[in-house]
Amino acid sequence: MGRTTDQGAPQDTLTVKDNRTGKIYTVPIADNSIQATAFKAVKAPFKQGERPENETDKGLRIADKGYLNTAVMRSEITYIDGEAGILRYRGYPIEQLALHSNHLETAYLLLYGSLPTKDQATLFEEEVLHHGVVHSDAEQFFRSFRYDAHPMAMLTSAFAYLGSYYAEANPSLQGMYILSSLLGWLTPGTDDILCTGQTLYTKGSPESLAIMDKQILRLIGKATTLAAMAYRVRQGRDFVTPPTGLSYTGSFLYQMDHLGQENYVPNPVLERALDVLFLLHADHELNASSTTVLQTGSSLVDPYSAIAAGCASLYGPLHGGANEAVIRMLISIGKPENVPAFLEAVKRREKVLSGFGHRVYKTSDPRSFIVRKTADEVFKVTGRDELLETAMALHDAAMKDEYFTSRKLAPNVDFCGLIYRAMGFPLDFFPVLFAVPRVVGWLAHWRQMMLQDGGVKIWRPRQIYVGEGKREYVPVDQRVAVEGPKKTPSPIVHSGITKRTMLADFKGKAVAKL
Ligand code: CMC
């Protein structure tokens, strides 16, 4: 690196000329990517008056707000071609999986790389369902939320809470001895095992893998239980123990809906539809929440904390919260005749068209076609949702409008909210129905990262510091007030204080202006 001529540069390299110095650098290309760290060698002297915080002499930095073109993992899990509308899990097209597979079989595929045999699938399903039961203390935990708590707040907290039960799963607890009998998959009678804290998940040894895979089963198994508990708190219902003899989604429906009836069996069409939607949501490569799980997991925190972080990320309206936002948007539009005015407001950037657009897909999201087919099957059982006409009018108008077509904005998966609504789920439960299956994808990426060649590197991005240069501390009596929007804390309205208290007189009532 750092020559002044580019002659004889080998193939599969990138030649970069730094016009500040005239130096030429050769950067290797592998898998059609270059290493950002290669640019650390591209150094230049400071220009007259240049800020030292630019660190120009320490090498060039790569700026990429929003990770628009930064690859942070080598992954074998999911492939998306956003231009062609292709989504594959471990090489299998999503359309084939939606038709022939089921959520737990697909979970096995995403986690371990191949479709399970019949015996492998049976064992995996048994283990997942076996791990559906949670400690009875969890009931108190769920009861401690306000009656109207958003179920995503409950689910996010519940994943972190769950981690408090499994000391052997926590890399922060160094050098713990645990009984081999705790590790269900190990040979009975083997000696106690020393879990070496920080390397608990990164060793790849049979013991380490057994601990990792047990947490995976627990997390997938309990995801539906925790979600159902969040649902039942909101409905004012007692909790139920996960049933036996039902599928993953059948058990989930039972846990939400069973009210003591004899021989209660969920509707098979709804059970299968939910399973297909779970499969469609199981993974979507490095989206915001999966990246959050990896970012959090890169500090080697326990998987429960990492999954809780992913859940929090998914809750946002640009991501998993979009399915809830779609329905709120359709309700606000009301009738099909209001669609043109709504789209005009979107174009004026006064409103957001939820359920349209995607960072990766620049054509229709392939999952949206499966969602439509699934919707038809569900509507046969539940009846059509009254918002469907509005949704279709919105879709048709947007797909004909140059504003949306020129930006390659097409429907994404989040119109599945119409199916959830037809199935009778409350609006704020929709992101939960996204988060529960996505636990699988989060864990597949987390497992892959823990076992990647070369170990785990903590994710610590760089910044471009544009703030003040060094300045000296000013004693309080010599300061000049800095004022203006964003430069001082905003005035606070104390909503918890009643009008009567505001009118009352008491010591310390006059609050200093911030
Ligand atoms: N409605 C109107 N305009 C849009 C929309 C939309 N839904 N999405 C993008 N645009 C415009 C955007 O304003 C920009 O226009 P311009 O270049 O004139 O400023 C252009 O399209 C490019 O968009 P972008 O914001 O650069 O795209 P992004 O990749 O940063 O954002 C997105 C992707 C999904 C956050 C965005 O499309 C969006 O906000 N969609 C609505 C929310 C939604 O449905 N999210 C769920 C995504 S799918 C499920 C999941 O994976 O979570």
The computed structural class is: mainly alpha
Strand adjacency order, main sheet: 3-4-5
Tertiary shape = globular
First-residue to last-residue Cα separation:
54 Å
Question: What are the bound molecules?
Answer: carboxymethyl coenzyme *A
If helices are DSSP runs of H or I spanning 4 or more residues, what is the number of helices?
18
Fraction of residues in β-strands: 5-15%
What is the strand tally? 7
Helicity range: 40-55%
Please summarize the sheet with the most strands.
3 strands, antiparallel
Order of helices and strands: EEEEEHHHHHEEHHHHHHHHHHHHH
Q: For the CA atoms, what is the radius of gyration?
A: 27 Å
Compile the SSE list and pairings.
Elements: E1 13-18, E2 23-28, E3 78-81, E4 86-89, E5 92-93, H1 94-100, H2 103-112, H3 118-130, H4 137-143, H5 151-163, E6 176-178, E7 193-195, H6 206-235, H7 248-257, H8 268-281, H9 288-297, H10 303-314, H11 322-333, H12 339-347, H13 366-382, H14 388-400, H15 402-406, H16 417-422, H17 430-450, H18 499-503
Antiparallel strand pairs: 1-2, 3-4, 4-5, 6-7
The structure holds carboxymethyl coenzyme *A.
Carboxymethyl coenzyme *A (CMC) binds at residues 284, 287, 318-320, 322, 346, 352-359, 407, 409, 412-414.
Task: Give a brief rundown of this model.
It is built from 18 helices and 7 strands.
Folded structure, characterized:
- The protein is built from 18 helices and 7 strands.
- By secondary structure, it is mainly α.
- Strands 3-4-5 form a 3-stranded antiparallel beta sheet. Strands 1-2 form a two-stranded antiparallel ribbon.
- 35% of the residues are buried.
- It binds carboxymethyl coenzyme *A.
- Residues 284, 287, 318-320, 322, 346, 352-359, 407, 409, 412-414 line the site of carboxymethyl coenzyme *A.
- Residues 284, 287, 318-320, 322, 346, 352-359, 407, 409, 412-414 line the site of carboxymethyl coenzyme *A (CMC).
- Pathway: Carbohydrate metabolism.
- It holds the Pfam family Citrate_synt.
